[in-house]
Design a protein that fits this description.
alpha+beta; TATA-Binding Protein; 7 strands
């Protein structure tokens, strides 16, 4: 009986490792060399783990570029939480954001990482019903991606702006 329990635990751990290591990645390069991708990532909320899609920008000046993009376009964030990728880079969350000026509200989580193996700024987007807006099949998926690509291309870089993100 005890051996069977250990075996089941090991199989469960193996399954978790396989799922967490498997990456479903969509990668694209715009005509001007602007590289971005959509990856499936795990997030934890209320003690549960969910798989969501994350828009990643690889042509960046800082892992905080997505945060800067959000700040320049939508003002100060609503919440700061522990970063998914690095302890020294916090996640910033904007709630009730009207991306298209049509009263449709979204929650956007900005994060990023700067390590020897990864270097990107990222956004996770949920609608007001908690749906993953970057998931395949979501009706506004490509419109949201195009909106953030355009805002990223027009991002105004000022060194003092990055300091504001640490406040």
């Amino acid at each position: 009986m005890r051996l069977r329990s250990i075996r089941n635990i090991l199989l469960l751990l193996l399954g978790v490792i396989v799922v967490s290591c498997a990456a479903n990645k969509e990668l694209s390069r715009e005509n001007d060399g602007f590289e971005w991708g959509v990856d499936e990532v795990e997030i934890a909320s209320n003690g549960k783990v969910f798989i969501v899609n994350e828009l990643r920008f690889y042509e960046i000046n800082s892992a905080k570029d997505a945060m800067l993009l959000m700040f320049q376009n939508y003002g100060k964030w609503d919440r700061r939480t522990e970063g998914k990728y690095q302890d020294n880079i916090k996640q910033l969350t904007w709630e009730s954001i009207d991306l298209f000026s049509d009263n449709t509200l979204f929650t956007i989580i900005a994060d990023g990482t700067e390590t020897t193996s990864d270097y990107f700024a990222s956004l996770i987007v949920f609608d007001s019903n908690g749906n993953d807006c970057l998931a395949n099949g979501y009706p506004l998926r490509y419109r949201i991606i195009e909106l953030f690509q355009d805002k990223k291309k027009r991002l105004g870089l000022k060194q003092d702006m990055y300091q504001i993100l640490n406040e």
